[in-house]
Amino acid sequence: MKKVGIIMGSDSDLPIIQKATDTLKGLGIPYEVHIYSAHRTPEQARDFAVNARANGFGVLIAAAGMAAHLAGAIAANTTLPVIGIPCKSSVLDGMDALLSTVMMPTGIPVATVAINGGGNAALLAAQILAVEDAELADKLDQKRAADAAAVLAKDAALDI
Ligand code: RP5
Q1: Residue of 13, 48, 27, 39 lying closest to 127 (CA atoms)
Q2: How far apart are CA 62 and CA 8, in angstroms?
Q3: What is the residue range of 39's domain?
């Protein structure tokens, strides 16, 4: 199976990345995590993206906060699908990162999930890989069914 590459702009983004890695682990999807910043370590971020396909990655996830250009910078250097996670910072509550990540000009797409949406970023990455992987698609179906059952169990237990 192709790997998921996860890049975060700073170790302060780690709690959000943890949600993604937990989800990938649960689905048995191999991944690799790096701290590469679009502005602090631009060469390393670029090199990772340029070589990602040859290095066995199928999807990339890029998480950053504030003026969050990391996902766009990664996407500029690969035609692998790139999923952006806007991370919430203390000043503008993540709206800065959301707009910086989602508003990509035509030609370089970034599939942007919710602010701090590490779990959905991993699920979207899994769904992309599952297009060509029936076993993974089956695991995703099972997860959906288990999640639905958990909601219905809460519904049945309601006593208010
Ligand atoms: C971005 O700036 C990072 O992705 C992080 O979300 C934000 C703040 O970084 P630190 O100052 O915490 O390293 O580059």
Answers
A1: 27
A2: 6
A3: 3-133
143 falls within a domain: no
Quick: pLDDT tens for 27-56.
Answer: 999 999 999 999 999 999 999 999 999 999
pLDDT digits (tens, 9 = 90+) for 52-66: 999 999 999 999 999
Ligand 1 atom at shortest distance from the alpha carbon of 13:
6
- Ligand 1 mean position to 40 CA, how many Å? 10
Residue 139 located in a structural domain? no
Q: What is the CATH number of the domain that holds 11?
A: 3.40.50.1970
Centre of ligand 1 from the C-alpha of residue 66, in Å: 7
- pTM, to two decimals: 0.96
* Minimum CA distance residue for ligand 1 atom 13: 10
Extract the tokens encoding 119: 């779990």
By most ligand atoms within 8 Å of CB, the mutation choice from 13, 34, 91, 93 for ligand 1 is 13
Nearest by Cα to 63 from 136, 3, 12, 108 = 12
Task: Please work out whether the CB of residue 66 comes within 6 Å of at least one atom of ligand 1.
Answer: yes
